[in-house]
Design goal:
By secondary structure, this protein is of the alpha/beta class. The chain contains 22 helices and twelve strands. Bound molecules: adenosine-5'-triphosphate. The site of adenosine-5'-triphosphate has 14 residues, from helix 13. GO terms for molecular function: ABC-type oligopeptide transporter activity; ATP binding; ATP hydrolysis activity.
Length: 582
């Protein structure tokens, strides 16, 4: 509710008008049995045709007016609910953009997708129903009871007993199903994860003939969701039969009592019809109320899940200093060199349970240096470079860019100064130019071609229909792996960054292109500080300095020649790729 109320306040006109119109409709509905009673007792019983016609016309008028009020109420309720849904989705999207990488890792992409789609839809339809029914249904239930009292007190006492009993049943079902709905949504998350994994990895699944296993796993998850839905359905399915049985028992009691009272001349037939009518109205409204409660229960469970994301405060505080100014103000050392990146005794742990991904790393990269980072899989190479644009915060120590702790720099200016090409080439639907504009919004075609040339992508882009306007499909599936990588490198170069990080981003390139790429980068921007992460010794061997990582520790630092002479880990990596005899 905490997240819903402020949004609903913005649409208070619709949120107030919808229940009000429903209330007027309910009022008209409550008058109908009274008119029917008069029509029977005064019109039909006394054979007054004119009165019958007059009252029938009044009934028709009430029906038409009720319909009009109902449609207007539906309109306002739907409008408020849709606006709320749209705004919730927007807020979630904005929050997801704000959260740190660790927080995103903690939630996981799949649950975030379910929360932004299915959960928001549930909340939206819950709110729609609440606006229409939360005043109307109780009003009819209690109004009908009061009307019954005005007709006949002993008959009305039956209402007074039936309604709380039914209320208790509904309340019990509500309490029992609320936690179960949360479990159902959790199972939906699992299905979502499984679906996404399967769709994105379909080629690998087929290549490894894992279709049957995957089908099996999916079936298990689906069965778990089904079982959970059946459990909750069994309990909530009791709602209608139980309430019907109770109301019908009350109707039986009512007929029994009233038959005697009609015989005794205390009640007229029309009044009995009105009482039965009120009982039926109560039945219909209680069923609606029960369904409303089920829907609201579900919507509340979903709104809690949405609120859980919205209430998270980003654990990464933005700094206040501008990176460009810090860089301009930096004083060169005695050798005339400026520090670009410095790791001061840095350790990183992704979460409390796991071990350290990086332990006590210290090194300095000077402006214009090319730093190679090499190590086995999982040795911490990506973790190390991810700390420079502050994708994660260090657990201990300090990462400084241009001499200043990255935590003191504004994230925007820090990331604007860094071009990063990630291991997995992510491109977006749109033209090649659209993708390159991510690096520089107002770039012209000369800038595009310059970046493409350095990234060794010019030749293949020229062959594509429409060249810069060539349309990339989802995940750029109409490009090869190497073409995608070169385009992501060009996109990073568009920024003209001070620091360029290539995180294993030349792995799909052949050795000649990889070498040409490194030379072109060096020639195009002499002052650029370049980090090249790779498992290939050939990609890093010409770096000014190579950092060797092993199990999160910095086990070597030096030039290729120094490391080849003294460093066991580097020797192992190098000779595994270039055997000595070769
Ligand atoms: N987001 C994350 N959450 C938790 N643990 C992580 C995360 N990213 C990496 N790790 C862990 O940190 C360690 C170092 O991973 P990292 O990706 O930095 O290695 P790497 O040297 O780049 O490996 P590779 O060459 O295979 O890409 C690994 O044990 C990995 O499981």
């Amino acid at each position: 509710m905490k997240v819903l109320l402020p949004i609903l306040k913005k649409y208070r006109r619709e949120a107030v008008l919808a229940p009000l119109f429903k209330l007027v409709e309910a009022l008209l509905e409550l008058i109908v049995p009274l008119i029917m009673a008069r029509l029977i007792d005064r019109g039909i019983a006394m054979g007054d045709r004119g009165y019958v016609l007059q009252q029938s016309a009044l009934l028709l008028l009430l029906g038409a007016a009720g319909l009009g009020f109902s449609i207007t109420a539906q309109y306002f309720a739907a409008k408020a609910a849709m606006r709320l849904g749209g705004e919730l989705r927007h807020q979630l999207f904005t929050k997801v953009q704000e959260l740190s990488f660790s927080q995103l890792d903690l939630f996981g992409a799949d649950t975030l997708i379910t929360r932004m789609t299915s959960d928001v839809n549930q909340v939206q339809s819950g709110v729609n129903m609440v606006l229409r029914l939360f005043l109307r249904s109780p009003f009819i239930v209690f109004g009908a009871m009061i009307m019954a009292f005005t007709i006949d007190v002993p008959s009305a006492l039956i209402f007074a007993v039936a309604i709380p009993v039914i209320g208790a049943v509904v309340f019990w079902i509500l309490l029992t199903t609320l936690p179960l709905y949360k479990k159902v949504q959790g199972r939906l998350d699992e299905i979502m994860t499984s679906t996404r994994e399967n769709l994105t990895g379909v080629r690998v699944i087929r290549a490894f003939c894992q279709e049957e296993n995957e089908r099996q796993r999916y079936a298990e998850r689906n069965a778990a969701l089904f079982a959970e839905q059946i459990r909750v359905g069994r309990i909530s399915g009791l709602m209608n039969p139980l309430t019907y049985v109770l109301i019908n028992l009350a109707i039986v009691a009512l007929i029994q009592t009233d038959a005697v009272r009609v015989n005794a001349g205390i009640l007229a037939t029309g009044q009995v019809v009105a009482l039965l009518n009120y009982m039926s109205q109560i039945l219909v409204e209680l069923i609606k109320l029960a369904n409303l409660i089920i829907q609201v229960t579900r919507a509340m469970a979903c709104s809690d899940r949405v609120a859980a994301v919205l209430e998270v405060r980003c654990d990464m505080q933005d700094g206040s200093e501008d990176t460009a100014q810090v860089f301009a103000g930096e004083v060169a050392d005695a050798n005339g060199r400026k520090k670009a990146v410095e790791f001061r005794d840095v350790s990183l742990r992704y979460d409390a349970e796991s071990g350290e991904a990086l332990s006590h790393i210290s090194f300095t990269a000077y402006a214009g240096d090319t730093i190679g980072i090499i190590g086995g899989t999982g040795s911490g190479k990506s973790s190390l470079v991810n700390l420079i644009p502050r994708f994660y915060d260090v657990t201990a120590g300090e990462v400084a860019v241009f001499g200043e702790d990255v935590r003191k720099l504004t994230l925007e200016s820090l990331r604007a100064a860094i071009g990063i090409v990630l291991q997995k080439a992510e491109l977006f639907q749109g033209s090649i130019a659209d993708n390159l504009r991510w690096g520089k919004e107002d770039a012209d075609s000369a800038a595009f071609w310059e970046a493409l040339t350095v990234a060794q992508a010019k030749e293949y882009v020229e062959t594509k229909p429409g060249t810069l306007d060539f349309h990339l499909e989802q995940n750029a599936r109409n490009l090869s792996g190497g073409q995608k990588q070169r385009l992501t490198i060009a996109r990073a170069l568009m920024k003209k960054p001070e620091i360029l990080i290539l995180d294993d981003s030349a792995s799909a390139l052949d050795f000649a292109t990889d070498a040409a790429l490194r030379t072109a980068i060096r020639e195009s921007a002499k002052d650029i500080t370049c980090f090249i992460v790779s498992q290939r010794a050939a990609s890093v061997q010409y770096a000014d300095r190579i950092l060797v990582l092993d199990n999160g520790q910095l086990v070597g630092s030096g030039t290729h020649e120094e490391l080849l002479r003294d460093n066991r880990v580097y020797q192992e990596i190098y000779y595994s790729q270039f055997p000595k005899e070769a």
